[in-house]
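Hello support,

Our group uses your service weekly, and this is the first time we've seen a run hang past the timeout. The protein is Adenylosuccinate lyase family protein. I'm not sure whether the cause is the sequence or the server load. Input pasted verbatim:
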Amino acid sequence: MSASPFDSSIYRDLLADRETARLFTDSAEVRAMLIVEGALARAQGAAGLIPEVSAAAIHRASLELQIDPGSLASGVDESAVPVPALVRRFRDEMQAPEHAQWVHYGATSQDIMDTALTLRLRQVLARTEERLTAVLTALAAQADTHAALPMTGRTYGQAAVPTSFGALAAAWGRPLVTLAEGLAPLKEQLLRVSLGGAAGTLSAMGAGGAQVRAELAQGLGLGDPGGSWHTARQPIAALSAFATQVTGALGKMGADLTLLGMTGIGEITLPASGASSTMPQKRNPVLPAALSALAAQTVGLNHTIQAAQVHTLQRDGSAWIGEWLALPQVCIAMNRALDIAATLAEGITPNADAMRAALSANHGLIHAEALSFHLAHHMPRPEAQARVKALCNRAVAEDRDLSDLAAETFPDQDLAPVFADEAALGLAPVDARNFASAARAAVSLLSGTAP
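Update from on-call engineer: The timeout came from a worker crash unrelated to the input. Re-ran successfully.
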């Protein structure tokens, strides 16, 4: 196995989102840094900080030059960053020293690398929006369609009271609605240029530094932070926390699907399943298992990124490198989890017969709570609870259904509504449909079509 399954040609289709992974290749990083260097020169030319003719030449070269990432490796073990080598290669490849001397004027390596990262994170989050839209759309359809499909509600792994499959789909999707609503503020916080110079003061650019930063932000379509964020890593930490919440919500969905598809339960059919190498009857819940695994992995990676918020003084190497080790995997895991969840949400088929069988299993004891509350209208509630508990014990001991024993014990009571699965759903159908409406509103928000 490779050091990271996300980079593995064997495991990448299971655990990695290829579109996101491409944004974290060496080639993508070099291309993004070149774009930043070109945009910086153009901003400095517009501000009169460097000759406009040189700014135009540098900007044009940044779009045309091809620099081999491998050629930047020399010296990174000493400087920890590839920007000095990139600048040297850029200047050499331009073959115009009178213009090339202005490349990277007044900036520092972290400015170029953080801004280049931000350009790629913008594409990461565009992919996130796309897949989040797909998941919410599919879960809204499941919730609407199956709002009143009764199934066993389970707490601590035990049958509790009836719920509906639509309500379960809503439980999977409701956290995603909140996250979708928080995506725009996250992007506003995160998608900003970095330009602070050696110690965050932009001293090399003099009085024109603020104008250059504003021009650079406009040229790249990013926000102007109004100052240096070399050591203010909260936006990166916020992205990691967001990804952890996304994968966590989807991990719950994966865990539920694994349990509901177990032999002996079989209340759902997955759109795709894995075969065993030796047992021909097996249909392994591979995609739900991957969701749970990605959630657990992201939690661990998130710890590294949250700890890396402690960047000391004006610049910090170790904390910054800590981000490099974890952030790409966090982004890849988030978007792969969303992709898997969309596939599952679009293709899950509930097994209504199995769900009804589970509701009537175990002597119909799932209706015990409803019976006790019904009887509480006719006797003190403690007495009602005690009498229902006694009936439950008899049902097990005599291998009889609770509904039959209740009818015999309370012949003057109309107990049909108590033991009707649909009548016992409470707010489950309403909650399912309310979620569907909220999910569609969130999708409109993501697409920019909300009123």
